C-alpha cells in the first residue's frame, strides 16, 4: 500500500513542471510548421508593415535607396481624392454586394429551399453553387458578356420594353456588385442552410400551434435562433468582399475613370502600374484596418448574443 | 471565432503582402558591377527581353535574324529571345520585376527612353562607357539620340536603335467626301476641331478624330496625346532654367479642355472604346485601314502595320493617307509641334553575361542591321549612315515628312520623376474624358500630385520659360 502511495506523493510537487515539459516535447513535431508559418506568413506581414513606412518603389530613387518616410504614405493617401473615392466605392461595393445582396439572397434561398421538393432543391442548389465553383476570371468573363452593351441583360430588358444601359460603362460599380452577388450567394446559402437544419422542428411547430404566421415565425423564432450564423456569415463575406480583386479587374479594370476602383484595385494600380510599392502597402494596411473594424463590430454582435 | 478572425485578417494581409514582397528583394542594387572587366566572352547563353506589341512580329523577325547571325559567328553561344507580351505600363512593371533579381534578369533589355533615367536611378542598368570606348560605330549616332540614353551621372546606359516623331495622319478620301481639301494644313487647334466637326456632320459612321487618352494606353496617352497639345501652348512640363516642374499653367488646362471638347462633342471614339487597352493596335490594324477614322494623332511608325511584313498589309495606304504637322494652339511659336522618344538596348546590372550581351548589341547595331530595322520597324534612323542611305530615305512615302519634323521636335523631360508625372497626366486625362472631373479640377489634382512626387512646393514653379 505504502509503496503505491509514496510515489504519488513524491510526484505531487512537480505536477506544475513535468506536464509543461511534456507538452513542449509533444509540440516538437509542430516546430517545422511553426517555423514555416513564421517565415512565410509573419515574415511578409512584418515586411509589409515596414514597407508601408518607406518610399520603396519598382523604379527611380525608391528602388535603389529605400528610405524610411514615417507616416508620409498615409498622409498622402488621406489627402488624395482618388484614395477617398476608392474607400467610398469599397464601402458601397461591400454594402450592396455582401451585406445586402449575398446575405439576404442566401438567407431567402435557404429558407425557400427548406420548404421545396427535393428536385427543386437539387436544381437550385446546383445552379447557385455552380456560380461559386467557377474560377473567378471565367465568371468575370461570363458576366462581362452578360452586362455588355449588347449583352444578355440588355436583350432581356429590351424584350420586356425596358430601356437598357451600358452597365459596365454607365454603372460599373452596380454591375460589379451584381456580379459579386451572383458569384458569392452560394456561400451564404450554405451557411444558412446548415444553421436552419439545426433548428428543432418542434419549436417551429409549437409556434405555429400558438398561431404565429409565416412572417412572425421568421422574425421571432427562426431568425433569433440563427443569429450566430448570421453574424458569422456577415463577417466572412464582408472580409471576402473587401478584398475582391480579380472579378472587378477582369470586368472593368476599375474604370471607366475611377468609377469602380475599389481599394484593392487602387492598391494594385499604385504598387504595380505606377511602381510605388511603399504607398501600395500602406493602402493594404488601411484595407486591413477597415476589415478589422468590421470584424470587431460583428464580434460584438456575436458576444452580446452569447451573453 | 476570434481565431477565425485572426486567421482571416492574417490571410488577407499575407496575400496582399506576398505580392509586394515578391517584388522587393532589395539586395545590392546600388552597387554597379564593373563593365568590361573580363575580356574574353566565350560561348554564353544570352537572354534578350523586348515588348511584343499586339500582333506585330517585326521585332521578333528582326531579332530572330540577328540571333542566327550571332550564333553563327559565336559557335556554342545561345540567344534566347523573350517576348514580353504586355500593354504599355505592364511591360515596364514586368521588366522591372525581372531586373530586380539575378535569377530572372535578362542580359539585354529593350528600354523606352522615357523610363531609362528612372531605371538608372533604380540601379537596374549597367553603364556601357567602357564598352563604347572601344567601339568605332558610336560616332555614327546622332547627338540627341546619345543624350536620350545618358544618365544624370553622365554615363551612357543604352544604345538607341531608332527614334520617332508624331503628327496628324488624315484620310484624303474621307476629306474629299466632307468637302475638305485633300492637301490639308491646319494652322491652329481650332482648324483641327472644325475639320473634325465637318466630318462628323458630313460623313456619318466615321470617327472624325483620334488621340490616345487615359490610363489603358499609358505613355502613348501622355506623350502622343497630351504633350502634343501642351507643347503647342506657351507652357511646358518642366522649367530647365529653374530646374523645377511646372504647375498651375494655363496651357495644361487648355490641353485638358481640348481633350474634353473632342470627347464630349463626339469628335473622338466613345470614351469606352478609347479606354480599351488595345486601342493602339485597333487604330493601326482596323480603324485606319478600314477607313473608319478620318484624322489620327499618331506616330511616324504606324505605317509599319501596313507593310507586307506588318500586322495588316495595306499597300494603298500611301495614296489614301496624308500627313500634316500638329499645329500649335493658336499658330504661334514654330507653328507646329512634335514629340520624340525612342527605344534603346540596355544591359541590366544583374546580367550574368554582360560581355556577351555587349557583343550581341554590337551585332544588332551594325549599319546593315540598323538599316534593316529602321526600314522594317518604321523607325526614324538615329545613325547618320542609315539616315543618309538612299534605300532608307525612300523606304516609305512618309519617311521624309517625319524625318523633317525632327527640326521642331521636343523630348520629354528625361528625369527620374518623369514616369510618375506621366501617370498623373493620364489620370487627369481619363477623369476629363469620362466627365468625372472638369479640366480645372483635374489640373488642380495634377498640381497637387506633382508637388508630392517632386517633393514640395519649392520644387515647382508656375513659369514655363526655359523650354
From TrEMBL, chain A:
TM stretches of this protein: 27-53, 87-112, 124-147, 167-192, 234-252, 272-299
Membrane topology of this protein: Multi-pass membrane protein
Parts forming coiled coils: none
Name of protein: Carbohydrate ABC transporter membrane protein 1 (CUT1 family)
Record-stated family: Belongs to the binding-protein-dependent transport system permease family.
SUPFAM superfamilies, A to Z: MalF N-terminal region-like (SSF160964), MetI-like (SSF161098)
UniProt xrefs under InterPro entries: MetI-like, MetI-like_sf
Every ABC transmembrane type-1 domain range: 83-298
Main location group: membrane
Keywords attached to this entry: Cell membrane, Membrane, Transmembrane, Transmembrane helix, Transport
UniProt keyword Cytoplasm present: no
Cell location: Cell membrane
Species lineage: Bacteria, Bacillati, Actinomycetota, Actinomycetes, Propionibacteriales
Signal sequence, start to end: none
Any one Gene Ontology BP term: transmembrane transport
From TrEMBL, chain B:
InterPro entries xref list: Bact_solute-bd_prot1, SBP
Keywords assigned by UniProt, alphabetized: Signal
Coiled coil spans: none
Segments of this protein annotated with the region Disordered: 435-467
Keyword check for Signal: yes
Annotated signal sequence range: 1-25
SUPFAM superfamilies: Periplasmic binding protein-like II (SSF53850)
Keyword set includes Signal: yes
Entries under PROSITE patterns matching the protein: PROKAR_LIPOPROTEIN
Annotated protein name in UniProt: Carbohydrate ABC transporter substrate-binding protein (CUT1 family)
Annotated source species: Kribbella jejuensis
Amino acid at each position: 500500500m505504502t509503496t503505491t502511495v509514496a510515489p504519488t506523493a513524491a510526484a505531487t510537487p512537480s505536477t506544475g513542471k513535468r506536464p509543461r515539459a511534456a507538452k513542449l516535447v509533444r509540440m516538437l513535431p509542430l516546430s517545422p510548421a511553426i517555423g514555416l508559418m513564421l517565415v512565410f506568413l509573419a515574415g511578409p506581414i512584418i515586411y509589409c508593415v515596414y514597407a508601408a513606412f518607406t518610399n520603396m518603389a519598382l523604379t527611380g530613387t525608391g528602388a535603389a535607396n529605400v528610405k524610411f518616410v514615417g507616416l508620409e504614405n498615409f498622409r498622402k493617401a488621406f489627402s488624395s481624392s482618388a484614395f477617398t473615392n476608392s474607400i467610398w466605392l469599397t464601402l458601397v461595393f461591400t454594402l450592396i454586394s455582401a451585406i445586402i445582396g449575398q446575405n439576404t439572397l442566401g438567407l431567402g434561398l435557404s429558407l425557400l429551399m427548406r420548404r421545396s421538393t427535393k428536385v427543386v432543391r437539387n436544381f437550385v442548389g446546383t445552379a447557385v453553387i455552380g456560380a461559386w465553383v467557377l474560377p473567378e476570371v471565367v465568371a468575370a468573363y461570363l458576366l462581362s458578356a452578360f452586362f455588355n452593351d449588347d449583352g444578355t441583360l440588355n436583350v432581356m430588358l429590351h424584350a420586356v420594353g425596358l430601356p437598357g444601359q451600358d452597365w459596365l460603362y454607365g454603372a460599373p460599380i452596380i454591375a460589379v456588385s451584381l456580379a459579386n452577388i451572383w458569384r458569392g450567394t452560394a456561400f451564404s446559402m450554405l451557411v444558412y442552410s446548415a444553421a436552419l437544419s439545426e433548428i428543432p422542428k418542434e419549436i417551429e411547430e409549437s409556434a405555429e400551434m400558438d398561431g404565429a404566421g409565416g412572417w412572425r415565425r421568421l422574425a421571432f423564432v427562426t431568425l433569433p435562433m440563427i443569429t450566430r450564423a448570421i453574424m458569422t456569415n456577415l463577417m466572412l463575406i464582408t472580409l471576402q468582399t473587401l478584398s475582391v480583386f480579380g472579378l472587378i479587374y477582369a470586368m472593368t479594370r476599375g474604370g471607366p475613370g475611377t468609377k469602380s476602383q475599389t481599394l484593392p484595385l487602387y492598391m494594385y494600380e499604385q504598387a504595380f502600374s505606377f511602381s510605388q510599392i511603399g504607398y501600395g502597402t500602406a493602402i493594404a494596411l488601411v484595407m486591413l484596418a477597415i476589415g478589422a473594424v468590421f470584424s470587431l463590430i460583428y464580434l460584438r454582435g456575436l458576444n452580446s448574443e452569447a451573453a | 471565432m476570434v481565431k477565425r478572425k485572426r486567421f482571416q485578417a492574417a490571410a488577407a494581409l499575407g496575400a496582399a503582402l506576398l505580392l509586394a514582397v515578391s517584388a522587393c528583394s532589395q539586395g545590392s542594387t546600388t552597387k554597379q558591377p564593373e563593365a568590361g572587366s573580363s575580356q574574353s566572352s566565350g560561348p554564353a547563353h544570352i537572354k534578350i527581353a523586348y515588348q511584343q506589341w499586339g500582333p506585330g512580329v517585326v521585332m521578333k523577325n528582326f531579332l530572330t535574324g540577328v540571333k542566327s547571325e550571332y550564333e553563327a559567328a559565336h559557335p556554342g553561344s545561345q540567344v534566347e529571345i523573350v517576348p514580353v507580351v504586355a500593354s504599355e505600363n505592364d511591360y515596364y512593371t514586368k521588366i522591372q520585376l525581372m531586373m530586380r533579381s539575378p535569377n530572372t534578369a535578362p542580359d539585354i533589355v529593350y528600354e523606352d527612353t522615357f523610363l531609362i533615367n528612372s531605371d538608372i536611378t533604380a540601379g537596374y542598368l549597367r553603364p556601357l562607357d567602357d564598352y563604347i570606348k572601344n567601339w568605332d560605330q558610336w560616332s555614327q549616332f546622332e547627338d540627341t539620340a546619345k543624350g536620350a540614353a545618358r544618365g544624370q551621372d553622365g554615363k551612357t546606359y543604352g544604345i538607341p536603335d531608332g527614334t520617332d516623331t508624331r503628327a496628324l495622319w488624315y484620310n484624303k478620301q474621307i476629306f474629299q467626301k466632307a468637302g475638305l481639301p485633300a492637301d490639308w494644313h491646319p494652322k491652329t487647334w481650332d482648324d483641327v476641331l472644325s475639320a473634325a466637326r465637318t466630318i462628323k456632320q458630313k460623313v456619318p459612321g466615321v470617327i472624325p478624330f483620334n488621340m490616345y487618352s487615359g490610363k489603358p494606353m499609358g505613355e502613348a496617352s501622355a506623350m502622343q496625346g497630351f504633350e502634343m497639345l501642351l507643347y503647342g501652348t506657351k507652357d511646358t512640363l518642366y522649367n530647365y532654367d529653374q530646374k523645377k516642374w511646372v504647375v498651375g499653367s494655363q496651357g495644361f488646362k487648355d490641353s485638358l479642355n481640348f481633350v474634353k471638347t473632342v470627347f464630349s462633342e463626339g469628335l473622338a471614339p466613345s470614351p469606352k472604346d478609347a479606354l480599351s487597352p488595345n486601342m493602339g493596335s485597333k487604330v493601326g490594324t482596323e480603324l485606319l485601314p478600314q477607313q473608319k477614322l478620318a484624322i489620327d494623332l499618331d506616330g511616324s511608325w504606324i505605317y509599319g502595320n501596313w507593310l507586307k511584313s506588318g500586322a495588316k498589309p495595306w499597300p494603298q495606304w500611301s495614296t489614301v493617307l496624308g500627313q500634316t504637322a500638329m499645329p500649335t494652339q493658336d499658330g504661334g511659336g514654330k507653328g507646329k509641334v512634335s514629340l520624340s522618344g525612342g527605344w534603346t538596348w540596355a544591359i541590366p546590372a544583374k546580367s550574368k553575361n554582360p560581355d556577351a550581351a555587349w557583343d550581341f548589341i554590337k551585332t544588332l547595331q551594325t549599319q546593315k542591321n540598323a538599316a534593316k530595322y529602321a526600314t522594317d520597324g518604321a523607325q526614324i534612323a538615329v545613325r547618320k549612315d542609315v539616315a543618309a542611305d538612299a534605300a532608307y530615305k525612300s523606304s516609305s512615302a512618309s519617311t521624309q515628312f517625319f524625318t523633317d519634323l525632327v527640326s521642331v521636335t521636343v523630348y520629354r523631360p528625361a528625369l527620374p520623376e518623369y514616369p510618375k508625372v506621366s501617370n498623373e497626366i493620364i489620370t487627369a486625362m481619363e477623369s476629363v474624358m469620362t466627365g468625372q472631373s472638369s479640366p480645372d479640377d483635374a489640373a488642380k489634382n495634377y498640381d497637387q500630385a506633382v508637388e508630392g512626387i517632386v517633393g514640395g512646393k519649392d520644387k515647382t514653379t508656375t513659369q514655363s520659360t526655359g523650354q
